[in-house]
Specification:
Layout (H helix, E strand, L loop, with lengths): L4 E7 L19 E2 L2 E2 L2 H9 L4 E7 L3 H8 L8 E7 L5 H6 L2 H4 L3 E6 L2 E3 L15 E7 L7 E6 L5 E7 L8 E9 L3 H6 L11 H10 L3 E5 L4 E3 L3 H24 L23
Parallel strand pairs: 1-4, 1-6, 4-5, 8-12
Antiparallel strand pairs: 2-3, 6-11, 7-13, 8-11, 9-10
C-alpha cells in the first residue's frame, strides 16, 4: 500500500439501547472488561499502521471523549476530533472527515466494534485502491449486511445485501472498512435511505458496482458492544482472552478459550449508530 493510511473512528449515536448508562456519558466510554470501549478500535487501527486518527462523535458528551484521550500522545497517536451535529448515518459521519483524510487512504472502524484478529500492516500491503471490507462467517446472516464473494488470489465482492431474508452467503460485513479517498465522491452521490440516513452499505455497493471492492476474512471472534447483552459478551470475550494469556504465561501451555469466547462472533454488529 503506497499511500499513507489514516484512521477514522465513528463514535456517534445516542446509545439509546444502553440507556440509562448513556444518560451520563458517550456509550463508547463504557467499560469493556478493563478498558473504555473506544480503546479497542484505537488499538485495532494502530496495529493497522494508523497513527493519525480522527474520532467523530455527537455533540452530547463529546467533551468526555476529549478529556479521556486528549491528543493521543500517551498512546503514541495523533488524535483529531469532529462533531456530527445531527444523526445522518455512518456515511454522513464519514463525509465529515474528508479534509482530514485528504489524499490518503482511510481505515474506518465503528467505535463499538471489538476485533480479536490482529490485522497488521503486512496484511494490507496488497491494498492498492478501491475499498476493502472485513468478513466473518456467522450462523444467522439474516441479521447483518451479507457479502457474496468470488474467492481467488484477490477476494472480490460480487454483492452486499443489508439483512436479506434469503442471504446468498453466511459472510457478515463487520464494522471495519478501508477506502481510498474517492469514497467521498461516492458519498456525495448518495440519497438518504427510507430511515433518512446515508448508508455505508450503499457506499460499499458503489465500489462493488465498479469492481473495486476486495475483502479480508477474519479468523477469530469479533463483537460489537452496543446492547446490554453484547456489552456483557464483549467483556467476557476480552476477559477470557486475557485470562488465558495469563494462564499460558504461568503454565507455558497453549492458551484455551472457554466456550463462550470461541464462537463466531460475540454480539450484534449493526450498521447503524444508535
Amino acid at each position: 500500500m503506497a499511500k499513507r493510511l489514516k484512521g477514522v473512528i465513528l463514535a456517534g449515536g445516542t446509545g439509546s439501547r444502553l440507556y440509562p448508562l448513556t444518560k451520563v456519558t458517550n456509550k463508547h466510554l463504557l467499560p469493556v472488561y478493563d478498558k473504555p470501549m473506544i480503546f479497542y478500535p484505537l488499538e485495532t487501527l494502530k496495529k493497522m499502521g494508523c497513527k493519525d486518527i480522527m474520532i467523530v462523535s455527537g455533540r452530547e458528551h463529546c467533551g468526555d471523549i476529549l478529556n479521556l484521550l486528549g491528543s493521543g500522545r500517551e498512546m503514541g497517536l495523533k488524535l483529531s476530533y469532529e462533531i456530527q451535529d445531527e444523526a445522518g448515518g455512518i456515511a454522513h459521519a464519514l463525509a465529515l472527515t474528508e479534509r482530514f483524510v485528504g489524499a490518503s487512504n482511510v481505515a474506518v472502524c465503528l467505535g463499538d466494534n471489538i476485533f480479536n484478529d490482529e490485522i497488521s500492516v503486512s496484511d494490507l500491503e496488497d491494498f492498492d485502491g478501491g475499498a476493502r471490507i472485513f468478513l466473518k462467517e456467522v450462523h444467522d446472516p439474516q441479521r447483518f449486511g451479507v457479502a457474496q464473494v468470488r474467492k481467488g488470489d484477490k477476494c472480490s465482492v460480487l454483492s452486499i445485501e443489508e439483512k436479506p431474508k434469503n442471504p446468498k452467503s453466511n459472510l457478515c460485513v463487520t464494522g471495519l472498512y478501508i477506502y481510498d479517498n474517492t469514497v467521498f465522491n461516492y458519498i456525495k452521490n448518495l440519497t438518504p435511505s427510507d430511515r433518512g440516513e446515508l448508508e455505508i452499505t450503499d457506499v460499499n455497493n458503489f465500489y462493488v458496482r465498479d469492481g473495486l471492492m476486495s475483502c479480508h476474512f477474519l479468523s477469530s471472534w469479533w463483537s460489537d458492544a452496543g446492547t446490554f447483552e453484547s456489552l456483557l459478551k464483549a467483556s467476557t470475550l476480552v476477559a477470557n482472552k486475557k485470562l488465558c494469556v495469563c494462564e499460558d504465561e504461568r503454565t507455558e501451555g497453549t492458551p484455551r478459550m472457554i466456550a463462550s469466547a470461541s464462537g463466531e462472533y460475540g454480539g450484534e454488529t449493526r450498521h447503524s449508530e444508535k
